[in-house]
Fold:
Amino acid sequence: MGGEPQLVSRDFPGTLEAASEAEAWVMNEARALGLAPGAEFAINLCLEELFLNAVRHGRANRTKISIRSDSGAVRLEFVDDGVPFDPAAATARRICDRREDFSIGGYGTGLLQEFSRRISYSRGDGENRLVLEFDSAG
Structure:
């Protein structure tokens, strides 16, 4: 991979049904950019977490996803009009040992931190803007 930076973007409604469509679109774009399977997996996992949480918890009505590939790095930008939430500053819950009775939920921030190499968040014009950076080689 190399050459000129590539940027693709697409808007999606803030619905659970649109999450699958967004994931499929991102996977097609990741393949078109020539990303390694590990990078595709990490991006898809993080996107699913972001999209579903924006809709379920943030009550987002619309989202915009952008992917930019440049010099061995991939940036996924996720913008939504939901309630303010900064996953970069949120405390990450971790599963520390094997248990039968742990509660589901609250682990998404840890997933984002584990699978991306950098996270940045900003809020402006009524929108959350989260940028995740990944290695394109996965």
Q: What stands out?
A: The chain has one domain: 6-135. The first strand starts at residue 6 and ends at 13. The two ends are 13 Å apart (CA to CA). Strands lie at 6-13, 62-70, 73-80, 118-124, 127-135.
